[in-house]
Input
Amino acid sequence: MKKLIVMICILGGILIALLTIGVKIINSTYVEASYTESIETHLEEPILLQVPERTTEVSLGAMEPLSQEKEKKIITLSAVGDCTLGYSAQQSTWNRFDVVVKEKGYDYFFENVKSIFEQDDLTIINLEGPLTRLGTAVQKEFVFRGDPEYVNILTGASIEVVNLANNHTRDYGEEGYYETQRVLREAGIGFFGEQTIFYDTLKGIRIGIIGMKGWSSDKWVRDNLRQLMSEAKNNSDLIIVMFHWGVEGSYYPVQIQKDLAKYAIDEGAHLILGSHPHVIQGIENYKERNIVYSMGNFCFGGNRNPSDKDSFIYQETFELTDQGIISIDNQIIPCSISSVKERNDYRPTPLTGEEKHLVEERLKLYSTFK
Output
């Protein structure tokens, strides 16, 4: 009896084990079928990925840059003061400009500064006196003129443009004045002054240069300047104004100079240049723009031996940006108007050492404005 009961228990356990295994097999099959069905169902749906489209395969070495940096538009100009390429009939022949021309030739005068002018983009001078054999001398104390052939002094020195707005341009009347313009034009030298604006385009920068005599700052002068500025602004990116003004022999500007310079800048000028005092004056910065009140004499045939021979070349570099013209550098190159001390040989020469330092210190002193 006991054996029968044991046998029944063993058979029952085997039966339960077989039933458990069967259920697991059925469940496993169902899960696998469900998983497979799930994958097949999802594969029928589109898969969206955030990837850029590529139509061709390009190696990195062969790819071109997406954008190229624009070529910068930068120019450097040089400016100097009073240049009288001639003489006064009142002078004796000793060391007179025309006598020196015959002895030395045209290239002699700017020989020591020519390399500086050749390296800039534009060189500007104040041409104080006509180049003419025509006309009649006006009645005043000092009357200057040079032969038309003296224009070769300019062309041989890489001087591109001259100011005619000064108190000696008409020393031989209108006839001499207009012949001077003809001589300059035929030689390829630009000029500006009074109602004539000089225009040029250099390295993609449109330049306009205005010349005026600045003996007063009254309404007529300001109105005339404003009209010239308005025209220049319509045709230029960079506007320069050269004034012939101030008091001869004075190392500091008078109020008229200060007023006119700042008015011109308020109207849109980017640089102010000055001549006439025959000595150097200081430099002032106004609204991030420079006012060079007087550059003194440079190649000056009007005085065979002035007591003050200090001078300088003023240089400034401008860049045309998306925001307009900006100044990126400026410097002075101290000079003497003569290569010798005992007289004026009309041969401006850069200074070195202590002489250079003294001119720099003078300019610092004269640039201290009240």
